Amino acid sequence: MQGPSRAAAAASREAFTGALAAGADRSRLAEELFAAVDVLDGNATLRRAVADPSREGSDKAQLIERLFSGKVSAEALVVLKGVAAQRWSSERDLSDTLEAYAVESVIASAEAADRADRVEDELFRFERIVAADPALRAALTDTQAPVDKRADLVSSLLRDKVAPETLVLARQAVVAPRGRRFDRVVESYLETASHRREQQTATVTSAVPLTDDDRARLAAGLASVYGGTVHVNTVVDPRVMGGVKVEIGDEVIDGTVIRKLDAARRAMGA
């Protein structure tokens, strides 16, 4: 985001956090905000009007009031008006911010049920499963297929197997990618979760599954180095042969056997 949009996002956040603090039904708030993003994405004229930097913020808030009053909860209306009233650098920044608030509402719902870690783990694992299965990936990302069909496929795969918040986010990522690849959508959702929870996320690749104790020790070790809280996502890849590779932020710590063998071969000029 450019400067004006960063300021707009910061200013609009007060409306969003206020809605959560006021006791908004977080699941309903997420649903309504996702629906509002869909409305804006589907109506270029409306989107331009709401994001028009030359219009007064109060005028844009009144436009939102006319359009959504009586159709969404009072809390959702406050958030929508708070976002619309700001001055955005681009239309996409406005709708992206609304989407992020919707995702954050889902994570807040998971936090209230003490399963936010579970949701992050499940969403990450689902993306990896999809990435590893070309046929499944094609079925879920086929924009020519009816939305309901793709949503039903996600439900059939995940219902009763994951937290309800995971199912909501997985379905949303499939039915409303908003021009992005599925993996990028999930990545953005996980980044929003990390931002809300004020933590960093590390992706750890190992030859065999890590135990819960292994993950806890690794998270603690990374937290001591990078500060704050670190959430660990794990990937099993037998090709690494042994050791682990850790990706956190822009850094990669590669301690795998295959990496060491590659280094040895290079040293010998092989």
UniProtKB/TrEMBL annotation:
It is a peripheral membrane protein. Keywords: ATP synthesis, Cell membrane, CF(1), Hydrogen ion transport, Ion transport, Membrane, Transport. InterPro entries: ATPase_OSCP/d_CS, ATPase_OSCP/dsu. The keyword Phosphoprotein does not apply. Its main location: membrane. Pfam families: OSCP. The keyword Ribosomal protein does not apply. It is found in: Cell membrane; Membrane. PANTHER family: ATP SYNTHASE DELTA CHAIN. Belongs to the ATPase delta chain family. This protein is part of the stalk that links CF(0) to CF(1). It either transmits conformational changes from CF(0) to CF(1) or is implicated in proton conduction. F(1)F(0) ATP synthase produces ATP from ADP in the presence of a proton or sodium gradient. F-type ATPases consist of two structural domains, F(1) containing the extramembraneous catalytic core and F(0) containing the membrane proton channel, linked together by a central stalk and a peripheral stalk. During catalysis, ATP synthesis in the catalytic domain of F(1) is coupled via a rotary mechanism of the central stalk subunits to proton translocation. This is ATP synthase subunit delta. It comes from Terrabacter terrigena.
